[in-house]
Amino acid sequence: KAGVTQTPRYLIKTRGQQVTLSCSPISGHRSVSWYQQTPGQGLQFLFEYFSETQRNKGNFPGRFSGRQFSNSRSEMNVSTLELGDSALYLCASSLDGTREWEQYFGPGTRLTVT
Amino acid sequence: GEDVEQSLFLSVREGDSSVINCTYTDSSSTYLYWYKQEPGAGLQLLTYIFSNMDMKQDQRLTVLLNKKDKHLSLRIADTQTGDSAIYFCAESYTGGFKTIFGAGTRLFVKA
Q1: Quick check: A53 contacting B, CB < 8 Å?
Q2: Which of A38, A34, A43 is nearest to A113 (CA)?
Q3: pLDDT of residue A1
Q4: pLDDT tens for residues B66-82?
Q5: Least confident stretch, A96-100, B16-20, B34-38
Q6: How far apart, in whole angstroms, are the C-alpha atoms of residue A100 and residue B22?
Q7: Separation CA B74–CA B53 (nearest Å)
Q8: Which letter does DSSP use for residue B30 in this model?
Q9: Which of B14, B31, B32, B63 has the highest local Cβ count within 10 Å?
Q10: CB of B105 within 8 Å of any CB in chain A?
Q11: CA-CA distance, B64 to B46, in Å (whole number)?
């Protein structure tokens, strides 16, 4: 079965713009989590969605938001981009979020803010 | 609080064993994981261990958990050049819906 897909794979934006990233989970998976990976901060949890509801949120400003659709696909949005938002954004899917050991990661979207 | 620490670099010769260490602070952690990330790629789950286990072996990989000291290690036997990557230690807990990662250990394998 197909793995987790993320689009686009690479993105270049300018400060002040906004961006939307997309994640399609493995078929049948209902939980989608988002992580930001930077050289300085490492991997940090952004938020997790299950059945279109945000169940948990990390310590990120309100400029970072997300949503999940009825088909479990998820999008994250970053408004008013800052240089520090340049990062690899990873999403991960699991059946329902409780079986953590079955969390599968996508290849990521590399966002560069200039 | 939640914190996972691991050393940043490890260099070994091909054929030797590699041992990557990790410490965590959250005693309520239920699951502990090792992920591998190769350049330009996402994270690949290598192995995991439940907090009620001491050891888990999976082919060349051995995970040891010392719950008293909150210490987790990953041993890779007969390390190959293809094992060169960043290895992340991570923890989560039941109902937490999120995974806390360490900074990653970059493993260099010299031929």
Answers
A1: no
A2: A38
A3: 62
A4: 999 999 999 999 999 99
A5: A96-100
A6: 19
A7: 14
A8: -
A9: B32
A10: no
A11: 14
